[in-house]
Amino acid sequence: MKKNSGLKKKAVICAAALAMLGGLAGCGSSGAGAAASGDGKGASALSGKISLAGSTSMEKLCEAMSESFMEKYPDVTVTVEYTGSSSGIESLIQGSTDIGNASRNLKDGEKEKGAVENIVAIDGIAVITDKDNSVRDLTADQLKDIYTGVITNWSELGGADEAIVVIGREAASGTRGAFEELLEVEDSCKYAQELDSTGGVLAKTASTPGAIGYVSLDAVDDSVTSISLNCVSASEENIVSGDYQLSRPFVMATIGGIEEQNELVKTWFSYIESEEGQSVVSGVGLILPQ
Amino acid sequence: MEKKAGINTVETAAKYVFTVCAVIAILAVCSITFYMIAKGTPAFASVGVPELLFGTEWKPTAEDAKYGILYIILSSIAGTGVSVLLGVPIALLTAVFLTEVSNKNLAAIVQPAIELLAAIPSVIYGLLGLMLLNPVMYRLEKLIFAASETHQFTGGSNMLSAILVLSVMILPTVVNVSASSIRAVSKDLRAASLALGASRIQTIFKVTIPAAKSGIMTGVVLGIGRALGEAMAINMVAGGAVNLPLPFNSVRFLTTQLVSEMGYAEGTHRQVLFAVGLVLYVFIMAVNLTLQKMRKGALDDES
């Protein structure tokens, strides 16, 4: 019995090898028909695991992307951990993940360690206030003054006599890093509240009179008002055109370029670049890189 | 003969099972201690002990990074201290009420209610603080600082909110331990006091509570431990900016420091967070060692 099953296994392996050889020969010799059948085989036969780790801001994108990817390649398991940009790149460098997600450009130190930046989408950061606030537009300088504690009351900006409650994210958050860098207020912000999640900032801004906060553009909902910056509203067109100041890249970093990756990771990236992948990116409110 | 051998085997096996279980606990304590020291000390070397423990600036991601955690340590100490000062008297009087004053029917309602209070997860305390306490605090803050030019408005997420939430959270611990130690006071003592002409209240405060002192102190120390180690509820109501622990400042505790930044930290920043963990660990250990010493002292008193 045992011997028999061993034989069977061998037979299967042989058959598989033959099929592969056949496929290769087909590709080499003849035209379109063979290539198409080869593609079909690749899609169904591809199996294994792709692991991603990093930015919490990229959760929506990664969930949607991995879901539709696994629908097309049912034998591939995509796992995503949301540990934060820096720790995602850290795990990539340590080799514990295939792809490191970062919601910012890679730092020089990270690039020196071999991480390569693949921008898959662009995210805008929206500045939000509570619903009752009458201020709808700020200049970049006014926003800077608010976050550095120079302006402390909405009446100074043409709004009601209401104290400004400056809400932000904790140090090392990707959103905070991007916001402070894009606004050039690195490490000089005076926060009244430092919260550790996008949802927290949304909820607190919505419920606190006079609050101002910042979140990813796609996280903005009806509970808050998104205000425009230098008369440019935080919208997709304005981010693509480069008019809106507060935008940042979503990076899926790899060690070495995409062409050096294994078959699975290559397929992942070509899927993102395919029409299906691109519609996933825009489906979660992100902007396609040009 | 055979039967006896069988019993002996069971006895020996049981002994080994118990030993293994005990060793697991010891191993856990030792490995946690070792891990915290191994992970927590490098930051002291790379940042410098005075800069770390007595620095007041927390800017871990700045170009010229600052890793001072003095305000965070002070917030933890002040927050725990004040909430214990507020919570313990209430808890002690509740315990007295339960054991000495209330009739049985009322106690049968209050006792389970307090036990339920202990079972409520801290995130629920945080949520209530967030929804109910913070808006009230903000109104108070606006009243008090209406004329102030320098005060930064926090929207009600402040030290005071954290203290109030903590003082409610430590109630069940202190009440339960105190009540059982008051119950353990011998009836003879009370009877003797009453027979000498002392009133009921005099008996409670001059005889019963002093006699239950060591049990009550145990409850207080356990309460301190609970307050010091709480993270979730504080994270939701305290604001989370690193500031001097004044009542209406947004503050960050040792625990919330770990919770909110561990996910994103790298390099020295990460090391420093482990150092923060070590500081917290040392505090908790100190509290527990005090507790053990007190228990030992109480035992010695009795014998």
Describe this structure in words.
The complex is a heterodimer of chains A (290) and B (303). By secondary structure, chain A is of the alpha/beta class. Chain A has 2 domains: 43-122 and 249-283, D-Maltodextrin-Binding Protein, domain 2 (3-Layer(aba) Sandwich), CATH 3.40.190.10; 126-248, Periplasmic binding protein-like II (D-Maltodextrin-Binding Protein, domain 2), CATH 3.40.190. Chain A contains 11 helices and 11 strands. In chain A, strands 1, 2, 3, 4, 5, 6, 7, 8, 9, 10 and 11 form an 11-stranded mixed β-sheet that branches. In chain A, strand 7 (165-169), helix 7 (174-183) and strand 8 (193-195) form a beta-alpha-beta unit. In chain A, helix 1 runs antiparallel to helix 2 (32-45), helix 3 (59-72) runs antiparallel to helix 11 (275-283) and helix 10 (263-273) packs across helix 11. Chain A is elongated and about 65 Å long. Chain B has 303 residues and is mostly helical. Chain B has a single domain (2-302), classed as Orthogonal Bundle (MetI-like fold), CATH 1.10.3720.10. Chain B has helices at 2-47, 49-54, 70-101, 104-119, 122-144, 159-183, 187-195, 200-211, 213-229, 232-237, 254-261, 268-302, and strands at residues 58-59, 66-67. Chain B has a two-stranded antiparallel sheet. In chain B, helix 4 (104-119) packs across helix 6 and helix 11 packs antiparallel against helix 12 (268-302). Chain B is globular, with a radius of gyration of 24 Å. The two termini of chain B are 44 Å apart. The chains are: A alpha/beta (290), B mainly alpha (303). Chain A binds chain B through residues 56, 83-87, 90, 149, 152, 163-167, 170-174, 177, 186-187, 190-196, 204, 207-211, and chain B through 58-63, 134-135, 138, 142, 152-157, 235, 239-242, 250, 252, 259-261, 263-266, 269.
| CATH superfamily placement of chain B | MetI-like
How many separate helices of chain B? 12
The global form of chain B is globular
Order of helices and strands of chain B: HHEEHHHHHHHHHH
SS strand fraction of chain A: 15-25%
How much helical structure, as a percent, in the residues of chain B? Answer: over 70%
